[in-house]
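Model the whole thing, not chain by chain.
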Amino acid sequence: MVLVVDFGAQYAQLIARRVREARVYSEIVPSTMPVQEMLARNPAAIILSGGPSSVYAEGAPRLDRALFEAGVPVFGMCYGFQLMAQTLGGTVDNSGAREYGRTDLHVSKAGSTLFEGTPAEQQVWMSHGDACSAAPEGFTVTASTAVVPVAAFENDEKKLYGVQHHPEVMHSTYGQQVLEHFLYRGAGIEPTWTTGNVIEEQSAAIRAQVGDKRAICGLSGGVDSAVAAALVQKAIGSQLTCVYVDHGLMRKGETEQVEKDFVAATGVSLKVVDAEQRFLDALAGVSDPEEKRKIIGREFIRVFEQAQAEIVAEAAGEHGEQPVQFLVQGTLYPDVVESGGGTGTANIKSHHNVGGLPEDLEFELIEPLRKLFKDEVRMVGQELGLPEEIVQRQPFPGPGLGIRIVGEVTKERLDLLREADAIAREELTAAGLDRDIWQCPVVLLADVRSVGVQGDGRTYGHPIVLRPVSSEDAMTADWTRMPYDVLAKISTRITNEVADVNRVVLDVTSKPPGTIEWE
Ligand code: XMP
């Protein structure tokens, strides 16, 4: 296992993902973790991430020198590189030699462990204010840039390596190769980790945890809960029951997909609760976005609790002393890291995974995906034989189409939006854009009407908004520059095929300032 020491600013997660792409298992630990504790975890190598600090800043994170003297291979990147240089007696100046963005790196030592087989001149991604001007004793300088004399160094004997740039960022052309050179050549690690191992390991762990008891899982229609459920189903079979609350706010075909395709692929026992009318009644007359969200969240919990009580009662009747004791959740590794994860990482935000489940549930949790990143979860889903439409599904908010109707939510409006959304999704898929676009909310401006002309007559209909966005993690996003011909096709089809819509508009706002969803 490789430990990635997190010096902040979200670089660590990307590094951990890149290490796993190199088929080596990695975990993130905070830089505040004592070095002895890091070493006690027996890492095959340690990577020091970049971070927002200057090594000269007051209170900047430091590292105990013991980390470099334990015989464990270490790779420092950006801030990690400077910290390594400073801790081991090199020189780091804050002389204004700053570089941000794409930079040309000159590799000065052909055949170095990190740069072997890569060109002498290569593009890297830099983001630093301080710069290393002298490497520590025993280190060989292996690269420089126009402004930084020591942009990379290595000490093969001690297995210590460092680069000023960010090899984990895709703009560093040979970044992945440099990282793999460290892992395979520098640290001598074999690339054997796969998501297949995860399925086997997790299945065994889940069987041991659950024994002959029973578990339930709330399915939302999203990737995470579907893969978590499929994995648990593989482990404990009929001891698992899934609950799917159909709140009537799903997109066209989604409920059927869960009911038919998911069940067919997994053989899971599924309880579908048809709660459409209940949600429509609760939402009647409400236009305020926050109020809508609260109502949907509240009703969801009530319906789920009721379903769960029924399952527990049935199970108790059937099995006597084998009640439902476990709840499956699709918590992912980024949620764990950002929520503190028990590793001492700062608590940035607390996540609630399955559509806002109540906090006082008296269940033990099964979270088989808590060590995985999203792309790995998709791979696991694929290996488990889940349909492509579920595994590759783009994010969809828990409150569903309820927060994509600006105005009151009614059955008629939901049906109209479902049609428009289905057309947009169909055309995006046909154009091969599903993987380029993070998600494309389709929004109905139900309280707006504008004049149009269709056939020979005047119309007075609603606008539909297309909101295609590109993003890495939904925290920030940019509007996607979609091909005009695809936009034209979607617009023509929606205005022709969806009654009461006479205008299609494109949202060209990034996030910030606009959120991805309109409500
Ligand atoms: P915003 O609109 O905040 O959305 O930019 C960021 C991402 O989160 C999704 N989203 C939600 N997901 N429950 C969810 O499970 C919610 O209440 C919710 N609201 C927004 C949104 O689709 C986007 O991917």
